[in-house]
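Troubleshooting entry. Yesterday's outputs looked truncated, so today I'm pasting the complete records for two proteins to confirm everything comes through intact. If either block looks cut off, that's the bug. Protein one:
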Amino acid sequence: MEDGAVTLEERDEAFAEEWARRTAGADAVVFDFGGVISVAPDTDDWPVYGYCASRGVDRKAFDAGWRSYRHLYDGGFIGFEEMYRRTFADAGAKPPTREDFDALVRLDLEGWIRTLRTDTLALMRRIKSEGRKVGILTNMSPDFYEKLFVTRAAAYRALADAEVVSGLEHLYKPEPEIYSLMASRLGLPPERLFFLDDLERNVEGARACGWQAAVYPPPANPRNLV
């Protein structure tokens, strides 16, 4: 390393210091998962599209299936395989095989947790060191939560004072009820909470419930923790 060069750890700490300052008016900071704790896949060039197209589900049909069924999956109303069976059927494609499902788990689900944000972990630790609370509020299916999130994001979960997961509660961001549930679990009034999400609609949903909130920026320094 050249003299005077900033280390990756120093970048993370500088990011954490800045966002701790921005959220300083809150007694708890609540984090989304995709795009905030993890580096979200690049959905402009997502390998899932190509794989599905090779099975007869083009981008238009895939997007229609996403709009129709992804929220049911994230809400815990249908499973991963059922979501893709319906999408393939709507597109007039042959039903997905066991090999298809294995590939889709790797390309779709694994992609959402493959790279975790060390700058977010540094921020969570900074907030806890200040005596404030941390929450995790996410639209996430039960099977993703149980099979991937619980184990691979253990370092983040260990810092959380409360979690609210859509698939376990059958609630979604930006519905008001999911923010109210998070506030209840943290034991704080909405105005003392600060929400960080990568999507403007979820940030606006929190603000409508009386929270402080901001759109969280892309990773300053993405690194795989696994």
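Protein two, checking that the full record survives here as well:
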Amino acid sequence: MNNQPVGASRIPKATWLGLFVALFGMLIARQITYYFWPTPTFTAAIWKESLIWLCVIALLVIIRRGERLPLTSVGIGTCPWWKSILWGLAMTIICALVGFGIVHATHYGGADNPTVAAFSKLPVWLLVFIIFRAGVVEELFYRGYAIERLESLGLNRFWAVVIPLTIFSVGHWTGGWANILIALALGVILSVFYVCRRDLVANMIAHFLVDLIGNIH
């Protein structure tokens, strides 16, 4: 893990702001969109995705300009690309087995959930884009940045993992309780992998592929 101490007085302020963006930025973007478009229409999806990517830009600016840290401080570029791909594929298999096991055990289909049903009616290209964003952004926010920075602020590794994992899991409430359970189980696997290898790219690959397999039929 990156245990580089935060020295200058302005760095903690940037880090706190970064943690707010990472932990709550996506949720705020979703609620803003829901306020204007309660049903996930095409327009609503475009606005939500735009707001989330603005959060990504803000976080990257915080990392590079506010904290003056490299992207390796959030697990990007820490491993050769071929290793990231191989580990990503291995993690995809593990996460897929666990995820589909929970789906089978809970009989979760999502068709009865209005949000999930509306999501499935979006154009395929937009669905793939949203799934790609989920894989990249959720791993950057809840694994790479949140775990690293919470630990750098003095939290032990357990709480540095549990806090973002809890927010990540509960944030899937729109898909129902089974979706929260799936997010929690897969989040545990991805979090453990991250703290062991610090390869965020592998996490992103696995997250994207599992979501793609589960949502595109």
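Both blocks look complete. Sanity check on protein two: The helical segments are 10-36, 42-66, 81-106, 114-120, 124-152, 157-170, 177-197, 200-215.
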